[in-house]
Specification:
Blueprint: H1 2-23, H2 47-50, E1 55-65, E2 69-80, E3 92-101, E4 106-116, E5 121-139, E6 149-170, E7 173-188, H3 191-199, E8 207-219, E9 230-240, E10 247-258, E11 266-276
Antiparallel strand pairs: 1-2, 2-3, 3-4, 4-5, 5-6, 6-7, 7-8, 8-9, 9-10, 10-11
């Protein structure tokens, strides 16, 4: 029954996205305005005109992950400026997305990034739910070092929710406080796989992690969406609540350089680290050591377990 509900939900999202995309196309016969550029090749915008109304885009993107294989994402983006008379804040973005892969994994969700009062406030919120089909190598006899490993074909159901409020406290420095939730349930796709999961103490109910996030960031980017220069450095700590009381520390550094006078040539440098103060639940192991999908491992999730 749950699988039928998932298929109906995903089909509805795909149909909705396709319909919205059809209405978002430029009408036939309507001429595009001439694009004006400065001496460095950057497009020149009329700020007051650019900040009027709402702009919609439907973005199809291919995806690849060693575990979930090739896929396609459909992303609906709505850009707007909520603060009237504000000529400093970047465009706010709201949207919905869906992803489906060749091994029948899927994910769908909604997201928001809102900038208010000349970029004094930054609000972030998103929620996703999905099911990922992967393989795990697990011990056939946990506790026995020489026991052979068995291959378990599993589906990992994931629910994610996040909300963050950031306020500028100094020039280009932001202090943030947020709440996050992460739930997971690992299920075997056949009886032998489920038996391996049971032997290795995977639960048959959703495991829940939730807590508070404290963040500090320094942002000098000339454009938050398409930076030509500048940097953003962010450090944060997640204080987990409930039975899982470990702290999770994150450091993220990104810097952008324009090479020469051609703005098409941008060099980006990215460094990322995530550290945990205590042992994490087995269901969450694959999420540590990677940058939330930004930095990709060279091997499949589940191939190696500590």
């Amino acid at each position: 029954m749950l699988n039928k509900i998932k298929k109906v939900l995903f089909s509805f999202l795909i149909l909705t996205f396709s319909t919205l995309g059809a209405f978002a196309q430029l009408p036939i016969g309507q001429d595009k305005e001439e694009v004006k550029k400065d001496e460095h090749g950057r497009q020149i915008f009329d700020d007051k005109k650019e900040r009027k109304g709402v702009k919609y885009n439907l973005v199809p993107l291919p995806s690849y992950d060693p575990a979930s294989k090739w896929g396609i994402s459909l992303i609906n983006l709505i850009n707007y400026y909520p603060s009237k008379g504000d000529l400093k804040s970047p465009p706010s973005t709201s949207g919905a997305m869906a992803n489906y892969t060749t091994n029948n994994s899927w994910m769908a969700g909604v997201f928001n990034k809102i900038y208010l009062k000349e970029d004094l406030w930054r609000l972030t919120a998103f929620g996703f739910y999905g099911a990922f089909n992967t393989e795990m190598y697990l011990s056939t006899a946990p506790g026995q070092e020489e026991a052979p490993m068995g291959l378990a074909k599993v589906t990992t159901n994931i629910a994610i929710g996040n909300f963050m409020v950031e306020r500028k406290i100094f020039s280009r420095v932001y202090l943030g406080l947020g709440y996050q939730y992460n739930g997971r349930l690992v299920e075997g796709r056949d009886s032998a796989s489920q038996e391996l999961l049971d032997k290795n103490h995977f639960g048959d109910e959703f495991e829940h992690m939730h807590g508070l996030r404290y963040a500090l960031s320094y942002d000098t980017r000339d454009n938050v969406n398409y930076p030509y220069s500048g940097m953003i450095v962010k450090v944060s700590m997640d204080q987990m609540l409930g039975s899982d009381k470990q702290n999770i520390f994150l450091a993220d550094y990104r810097q952008f350089f324009t090479l020469g006078d051609n703005v098409s040539n941008v060099l980006a440098v990215h460094a990322f680290g995530r550290f945990i103060s205590a042992d994490a639940s087995r269901s969450f192991w694959s999420s540590y050591g990677r940058a939330g999908g930004i930095a990709q491992r060279g091997y499949e999730t589940g191939r190696y377990n500590d």
